[in-house]
Amino acid sequence: MIGDDQTPAMPAGPDGPAASDVPKLSLRGVRKSFGSTVVLDGIDLDVAVGDVITLIGASGSGKSTLLRCVNLLEPTDDGQVVFDGVDIAEPGLDPDPIRRRIGMVFQSFNLFPHMSVVDNVAIGPRKVLGTAKSTARENALAMLARLGLSDRADAYPDQLSGGQQQRVAIARSLAMNPEVMLLDEITSALDPELVGEVLDVVRGLKAAGMTMLFATHEMAFAREISDRVCFLHQGRILEEGPPSRIFESPTEPRTQAFLQRVIDAGRL
Amino acid sequence: MSDRPTRRERYERARRRRSVVVATVSTVVVVGALIILIPLTPGWERVRQAFFDGDVFVETFPGLVEAFWLDVKILLWATPFILLVSLLVALARNTRSPALFPLRAFAVIYTDVLRGIPVILLVFLIGFGVPALGLSREWANPVIWGTVTLVLSYSAYTAEIIRSGIDAVHESQRAGARSLGMTSSQTMRSIVLPQAFRKIVPPMMNTFVSLQKDVALVSLIGPVEILRQAGIDKATYANFTPYVAASLIFLAVTIPCTRLADWLLARQRARTGATTIA
């Protein structure tokens, strides 16, 4: 349902060299503390164009903060976040032009309750890209159609199911044509029977070649969709690798313990 | 579904009947007691003549309504300026940039000082003080400075209401908007303020009702609006009935506004889906 003409572009960046060997996004020694609590304790991570990288780990391991640091919603204390060759963690950098190129979807949707669904999707292009109102609306309707939400275009967010709301939030983010998508536990607030429709959208994004950084507790899905899985523990990436290796033969005892708890809870 | 009422419906119906009966009986008892007891007081006849004289009422009422028009005009001038000034003060208090520290400090002082002084004192200070600076005749008009006083005082209160509304919009809304690349001022304008204003409609209506009454304070520095006209009529007829008439005129405006405020509040509750807990 995603994947034709208006698929989010996946260029190597306007002035970047051709694909693969140079990462789209690269974190080096990223540190972040809230008061005396160290949340990110030196994160190194490379994301190439088209990569789908999942972040797994217990609550509080730093997954969300990592995503928020990449989107500059949280300032990093130290280290570099290099996006298309530019260190966006540079203090004092204007975050707005960066953010419009990086999409983010939140656990609690964060839709704008005072706007209809189609306005939620159109407002980014209208305000940030200066797209004409009618064009922005048309594009938004097309995006909603792609996500199977045409009939809800004029509804308000609180009239929608959680799964629909989260799909609208994804549409809102995609409307900006982001180069990278950050998905922050996007199914954690959903009833189990609604998780599937949202994950289907993520499958569609992967098929379209979207570069994604995905924090999740959905282990089966992480295993299915990831190019690489990172296990976070106390603000560090303890183990990183292809899903088959991480899920079948983790080398770190703490990864093993975490996956065992997940299996015991019946989530894998 | 059968036509037979459910157990809950029967219970609710019985309870409703019971509360109607209780309300009716208690109202009849209280009102009856007042009607019987008040005329029994020794001074009642004097009070009736002094405050409820039908002839004086009929004579003075049209003049009072006419004088009330000035109150309405002051109200209509003051309201948009209050909204504008209070919005600017609230936004100034919300700025973060260090370069805007003087603005922020000014906003804090503005709200602290103007909310801390009784409106009646402000009316005297500004109403007598500013024209004494030697303004030209048309600018020395007490109506203007009375209105300015109301704007200054009420925008300090209203700014705090707006600020509380802004604070009540959850941080995640800002995160949602900023993640799209919207600037902080775009986020404020398109996302935060529209939601904040919906939240503050009821307290704003309350303040508006309160403003309607405080317009009468402007009479203290001279303008013949309804309160002053009532005072003049009182002296002319040696009778307090004009004050009762003036009160009725105020009620004719404030009660609909109060009801409107209640209705808006109820509608907001219904929309956000909050249920009343028994």
Provide an overview of this structure.
The complex is a heterodimer of chains A (268) and B (278). Mean pLDDT of chain A is 90; it is low at 1-19. Helix content of chain A is 35%, strand content 22%. Chain A has nine helices and ten strands. Chain A is α/β, with parallel strands linked by helices and 268 residues long. In chain A, helix 3 (117-129) crosses helix 4, helix 3 runs parallel beside helix 5 and helix 5 packs parallel to helix 6. In chain A, strand 4 (78-83) and strand 5 (86-87) form a beta hairpin. In chain A, strands 6-7-8-3-9-10 form a six-stranded mixed β-sheet, sandwiched between helices. Chain A has a four-stranded antiparallel β-sheet with strand order 2-1-4-5, covered by helices on one side. Chain B is flat, with a radius of gyration of 25 Å. Chain B has a single domain, classed as MetI-like fold (Orthogonal Bundle), CATH 1.10.3720. Chain B has ten helices and no strands. Chain B has 278 residues and is mostly helical. Chain B has helices at 7-37, 44-51, 54-94, 101-116, 119-129, 142-168, 171-179, 184-214, 226-237, 241-272. The model of chain B has no long low-confidence stretch (mean pLDDT 90). Chain B starts with 6 loop residues before the first helix and ends in a 6-residue tail after the last helix. Chain A binds chain B through residues 71, 73, 95-104, 106, 108, 110-114, 123-124, 127-128, 158, 169, 172-173, 176, and chain B through 172-173, 175-183, 186, 190-191, 194-195, 198, 273.
What is shown here, in short?
The complex is a heterodimer of chains A (268) and B (278). With 268 residues, chain A is α/β, with parallel strands linked by helices.
